[in-house]
Amino acid sequence: MAKGDERTARGTVRTITDLARIAGVSPGTVSRALAGKSLVNTKTREKIEAIAREHGFRPNQMASGLRRQKTGVIGVVIPMGHDSRQQISDGFFMTLLGFLADELTQEGYDLMLRRVVPGDDADWLDRFIGSGMIDGVIVIGQSDQFALIEDVADGYLPMVVWGNHKEGQRHCVVGTDNRLGGRMAVERLIAAGARRLAFLGDTGPMEFAARFAGACDAAARLGVEIIALPTHLSPDRASEEIAGHLAATQGQVDGIFAATDTLAALCLTALRERDLAVPETVRLVGFDDLPIARQTAPPLTTIRQDIAAGARGMVHLLLRRLAGEETESLVLPPQLVIRQSA
């Protein structure tokens, strides 16, 4: 078989994904190999470079060509590794997506949205990046995918992540100081008279883990105990789980820090159903300051994260990274908003 026929049989290489398919590796590995990253072992890098040459590309030309390619589209992906049944209609996602759409449109970009349940698929982010359909990517939430995001960041510059900043991490993140926010929430509950505290939410995802850690910091410093009440964010689970928690802890908890305003609103409903007055019997603090926080009865005391500023920051940093610039992460300060629930 002639070399040209062999190339046809093995497939045409137009994108990193095409080359990855032929090489039998992930698109991220191809990207890192072509960029000369030391994380790719020599044998694999030489194999990828040989396939690129076989198909008429020099590795450096292919990499620079992919960097120059413009689609006018930014990918926005929401990984749901921590809770496969959580929905994009969640109030936080909808609020952030609205601000992101405004900012990207103003900069002349369209938005391509994907919800991903990673499962055993370790290459979901590499494939999205290597699809040839987007110029850069915004990841909303680290979920349980921190290690994968770190790996992709080693070979792909135009990516910004909404989430929690961890000292020494390699990917660029925008988010609130969640640990400080957790401390502020517990300080407010105690100032409002609560002494037996609970954290309502999943302590696994990085942002929630930091909020819980901050809550524990403040509780220990002020000499009170706080327990965790694990709760999913998916609406088909949360209400039932909250009702179960309240039944199990009635009389034992007089202050609740909910990981999100959405959970806090569901908790208010469950407390009302059990004739537990807020804030007279149970004080309640949420997190986010979504529009719903002002509409509950009573209005919700919460920790505000500036979602609009976060969206602006993410787009600004992504544009700089699209221009080839390395950027630092952006950590926003939380703010206590006192209303009537605590």
TrEMBL record:
Superkingdom in the source lineage: Bacteria
Keywords: DNA-binding, Transcription, Transcription regulation
Alphabetical list of InterPro entries matching this protein: HTH_LacI, LacI/GalR-like_sensor, Lambda_DNA-bd_dom_sf, Peripla_BP_I
Database matches in SMART domains: HTH_LACI (SM00354)
Domain HTH lacI-type: 14-68
Gene Ontology molecular-function annotations: DNA-binding transcription factor activity; transcription cis-regulatory region binding
Coiled-coil ranges (or none): none
PANTHER family in the cross-refs: ALANINE RACEMASE, LACI-RELATED TRANSCRIPTIONAL REPRESSOR
Protein name: Transcriptional regulator, LacI family
